[in-house]
Design brief:
- This protein is α+β, with helices and mostly antiparallel strands.
- Among the domains are: 90 residues, ACT domain (Alpha-Beta Plaits, 2-Layer Sandwich), CATH 3.30.70.260; 58 residues; 38 residues.
- The radius of gyration is 46 Å and the shape is elongated.
Length: 272
C-alpha cells in the first residue's frame, strides 16, 4: 500500500514538472518570436535609413574664372575666341576695347554652359602667345540650394492648407485673416522662387572673363615715342603762338604801356 502511494506521488510530481517545463518552453518561444520580430523591424528600419543615406545628391557648383593672354595678332585671336564661344554654346555678355601705355587691350565676358567651362578655358589658353593669368573659382552652393528648395516646398504646402481653410471659413473676419496670411506666404514664395531661379541659372551657366592684349612696342620704342610726343607738344605750342600772334602782340603792347605809365608816375613823385 505504501509502495502504491509512493508511486502515485512520484507520477503526480513528474506530471507537474512536465507541465511547468512545457509552459516555460511556450513562453520562451513566444518571447523569442517577439525578439526576432523586433530585430527584423529594426534591421528593416536601419536598412531603410541606410538606403536613404545612399541616395547621392548632385553637387551644385557655381563656376567662374578669368584668363589674360598676350597675343601678336589681335584679329586672329578674336576670331579663335569667337569660334570657341560658338562651339561651346556660349555668348558674349560684355565687350570693351581700350588702349593704355602703348598696349591695345581687349576684354570680354562670356557666359556658357557649365559642362563646357573647362574645355572652353583650355581652348582659349591656346589662342594667344602667352598666358599671363589663369584663375578658376568654384563655389559649392549645394547646402543652400537644398535649403531653398525645402523652404519653397514648405511654404507651398502651407499655402495649400490655407486655401483649403478659406473654402471652409464662414465668417468674413476669418476669410480676411486667411487672405492676409496667404498674401504674406505668396510674397515669400515669389522671393524664394526668384532666388532659386538665380541659383539654377548660376549653376547651369558659368562666367568666363577673357582679356587679351597686343604689346606693340619695346622699351626703346616707347622711349622714341616719348621724344616724338614731346616734340609734337613743342610744335603745337609754336603753332598756337603763330595763330595767336595778334592777341599776343596786343597783350605785350598793353603790358609795355602799363609799365611806362607806372614809371612816369613814379618819376613825378620823386621830383616832387
Amino acid at each position: 500500500m505504501k509502495n502504491i502511494l509512493y508511486i502515485s506521488l512520484m507520477i503526480v510530481i513528474l506530471y507537474g514538472c512536465g507541465r511547468k517545463n512545457a509552459n516555460y518552453s511556450a513562453a520562451d518561444a513566444e518571447a523569442t518570436g517577439k525578439m526576432s520580430y523586433m530585430e527584423e523591424s529594426a534591421s528593416a528600419d536601419v536598412g531603410g535609413e541606410a538606403g536613404s543615406n545612399d541616395i547621392s545628391i548632385e553637387p551644385k557648383i557655381i563656376k567662374s574664372g578669368h584668363i589674360v593672354l598676350e597675343t601678336s595678332d589681335a584679329a586672329k585671336t578674336k576670331a579663335l575666341i569667337n569660334k570657341y564661344i560658338k562651339q561651346f554654346g556660349g555668348w558674349v555678355s560684355e565687350e570693351t576695347v581700350s588702349t593704355y601705355d602703348g598696349n591695345v587691350n581687349y576684354a570680354l565676358t562670356v557666359r556658357l554652359p557649365a559642362k563646357n567651362f573647362d574645355d572652353m578655358l583650355d581652348s582659349i589658353s591656346k589662342s594667344g602667345k602667352n598666358v599671363d593669368e589663369r584663375f578658376i573659382n568654384s563655389q559649392d552652393v549645394t547646402e543652400e540650394y537644398i535649403d531653398v528648395e525645402a523652404r519653397l516646398k514648405t511654404k507651398k504646402e502651407l499655402e495649400a492648407r490655407y486655401l483649403e481653410l478659406i473654402k471652409k471659413a464662414g465668417k468674413v473676419e476669418e476669410i480676411l485673416s486667411i487672405e492676409k496670411e496667404i498674401g504674406i506666404l505668396r510674397a515669400d514664395i515669389e522671393s524664394i522662387e526668384g532666388r532659386l531661379r538665380y541659383m539654377k541659372n548660376a549653376v547651369a551657366y558659368s562666367t568666363l572673363d577673357i582679356r587679351y592684349y597686343v604689346q606693340s612696342q619695346t622699351f626703346g620704342g616707347k622711349l622714341v615715342d616719348a621724344f616724338k610726343t614731346g616734340w609734337h607738344v613743342i610744335l603745337s605750342i609754336l603753332v598756337f603762338i603763330v595763330k595767336a600772334w595778334a592777341v599776343i602782340t596786343i597783350v605785350l603792347l598793353l603790358i609795355f604801356i602799363i609799365i611806362r605809365i607806372r614809371r612816369r608816375c613814379k618819376a613825378k613823385r620823386l621830383n616832387q
